C-alpha cells in the first residue's frame, strides 16, 4: 500500500471527523449519523495502516481520533452503586470460583509444607537451637510469652488496621508480580508457610500447640484463604505468559490482568474482615472453642459465597472481567 496515496485519499474524512468531534453535543441528526460512519471508516483505515504500512505519527493520530470518536459514539459511563453490587455479587465471587483449580492445590500444598516444617522443627532440637538461644525460645513459647501477647500488644483497632495493610500488600504483590512467571508468588508463599511452620514447631516442642492453634485459627482460616486465592491467581497469570491459549499473549494477559485487579479489590475486603477478627476476636477473652468457632463460621460463609454466588455467576458466563463497554476497543489486524 502506498501510504502517501492512502493519506491523500482519506485525509479529508479524518479532518471532517475531527471537526464533528470538536462540536461535541451540538450536532444535527444527519451530522450524528455522519460521525458514526466516519468513525467506522477511520477505524478500518487505522487497522489497514497498522497491518500494511505502519507509520508511528499517523498511527498515533488516528488512534487518538478513533478513541475520541468511540467515546462520543458509545458515551461515557460512570461507575455507580450498581457496578459495586454487581462486582461483589457476581464478578468477584465468579473470578475466585473460576480460579479454584489454581488456589485449592496451592492451599493444600502450602498447608502441607507448613505442617512439614513444623514437624521438622519440633522433632529436631538442633534445628530449634539454630533458630534461637534456648532462653529466647522459652520467652517466646512460655505462658504469657511473645506468641500469646502478640495479638494484644497494641490497641485492637490500630492492630487490625496494621494487619490489614500488611496482608493487603502481600496479596497485591502476588497478583501484580504473578506475570513474572509466578516466581515472586512462590517466594511470598514460602515466607508465609515458613513463619507458620516455625510457630507450629516451636509451640509444639513446648507442648502448647493447642494454644497456638487457638490463636491462629480464628483469623488465620480466612486470612490464609485470601493469600492462597491471590497466590493461585498470580500463578495463573504467570502461566498465561507461558501458555496464552488460542488468544494472543497480549489479549490473554489483558483479560487475566483485569481480572487480577478486580480480585485485589475483592480480597482487600476479605482481608479487612480477617484483620477485624485478628484485632478483636483473637485476643478477646472468649473461650478458645468460641474464637475458633467464629473463625470457622466466617470461613464457611466465604466458601459458600464463592461456590454458590460465584458458581452461579460463572455458569452464567461471568469471568470476573470488566464489562465489555469498559474494555479497550480491539481492532482487527492482518494475519
Structure description:
- This protein has helices spanning 3-23, 29-52, 56-74, 81-98, 100-123, 125-131, 134-141, 146-149, 156-176, 183-205, 209-242, 249-281, 288-315.
- By secondary structure, it is mainly α.
- Helix 1 (3-23) runs parallel beside helix 3 (56-74), helix 5 crosses helix 6 (125-131) and helix 11 packs antiparallel against helix 12 (249-281).
- The protein is elongated and about 85 Å long.
- The two termini are 16 Å apart.
- Residues 324-335 have low confidence and may be disordered.
Features:
13 helices; elongated; disordered C terminus; mainly alpha; 335 residues
Which helices and strands occur, and which strands form pairs?
Layout: H1 3-23, H2 29-52, H3 56-74, H4 81-98, H5 100-123, H6 125-131, H7 134-141, H8 146-149, H9 156-176, H10 183-205, H11 209-242, H12 249-281, H13 288-315
Helix pairs in contact: 1-2, 1-3, 2-3, 4-12, 4-13, 5-6, 5-10, 5-11, 9-11, 9-12, 10-11, 11-12, 11-13
Short description:
This protein is mainly α and 335 residues long. It is built from 13 helices and no strands.
- Secondary-structure element string: HHHHHHHHHHHHH
Radius of gyration: 27 Å
* Overall helicity: over 70%
Q: Can you tell me the residue ranges where pLDDT is under 50 for at least 5 consecutive residues?
A: 324-335
Shape category: elongated
Strand count, sense and barrel status of the largest sheet are: none
Strand pairing plus helix content: what structural class?
Answer: mainly alpha
What is the straight-line distance between the termini? 16 Å
Mean pLDDT: 84
Number of alpha- plus pi-helical segments? 13
- Percent range for β-strand residues: under 5%
> Count the strands?
0
Amino acid at each position: 500500500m502506498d501510504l502517501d496515496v492512502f493519506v491523500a485519499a482519506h485525509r479529508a474524512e479524518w479532518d471532517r471527523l475531527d471537526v464533528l468531534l470538536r462540536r461535541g453535543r451540538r450536532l444535527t441528526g444527519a451530522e450524528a449519523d455522519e460521525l458514526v460512519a466516519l468513525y467506522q471508516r477511520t477505524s478500518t483505515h487505522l487497522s489497514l495502516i497498522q497491518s500494511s504500512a505502519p507509520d508511528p505519527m499517523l498511527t498515533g493520530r488516528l488512534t487518538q481520533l478513533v478513541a475520541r470518536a468511540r467515546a462520543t459514539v458509545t458515551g461515557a459511563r460512570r461507575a455507580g452503586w450498581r457496578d459495586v453490587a454487581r462486582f461483589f455479587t457476581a464478578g468477584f465471587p465468579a473470578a475466585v470460583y473460576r480460579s479454584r483449580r489454581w488456589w485449592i492445590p496451592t492451599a493444600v500444598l502450602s498447608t502441607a509444607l507448613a505442617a512439614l516444617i513444623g514437624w521438622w522443627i519440633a522433632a529436631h532440637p538442633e534445628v530449634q537451637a539454630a533458630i534461637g538461644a534456648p532462653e529466647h525460645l522459652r520467652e517466646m513459647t512460655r505462658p504469657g510469652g511473645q506468641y500469646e501477647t502478640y495479638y494484644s500488644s497494641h490497641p485492637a483497632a490500630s492492630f487490625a488496621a496494621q494487619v490489614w495493610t500488611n496482608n493487603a500488600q502481600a496479596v497485591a504483590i502476588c497478583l501484580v508480580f504473578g506475570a513474572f512467571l509466578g516466581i515472586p508468588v512462590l517466594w511470598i508463599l514460602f515466607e508465609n508457610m515458613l513463619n507458620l511452620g516455625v510457630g507450629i514447631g516451636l509451640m509444639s516442642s513446648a507442648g502448647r500447640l493447642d494454644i497456638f492453634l487457638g490463636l491462629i485459627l480464628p483469623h488465620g482460616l480466612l486470612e490464609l484463604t485470601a493469600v492462597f486465592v491471590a497466590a493461585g491467581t498470580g500463578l495463573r497469570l504467570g502461566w498465561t505468559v507461558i501458555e496464552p491459549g488460542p488468544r494472543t499473549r497480549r489479549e490473554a494477559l489483558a483479560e487475566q490482568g483485569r481480572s487480577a485487579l478486580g480480585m485485589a479489590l475483592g480480597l482487600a475486603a476479605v482481608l479487612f474482615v480477617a484483620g477485624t477478627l485478628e484485632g478483636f476476636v483473637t485476643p478477646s477473652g472468649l473461650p478458645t472453642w468460641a474464637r475458633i468457632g467464629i473463625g470457622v463460621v466466617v470461613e464457611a460463609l466465604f466458601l459458600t459465597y464463592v461456590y454458590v454466588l460465584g458458581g452461579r455467576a460463572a455458569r452464567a458466563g461471568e469471568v470476573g472481567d470488566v464489562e465489555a463497554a469498559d474494555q479497550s476497543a480491539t481492532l482487527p489486524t492482518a494475519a
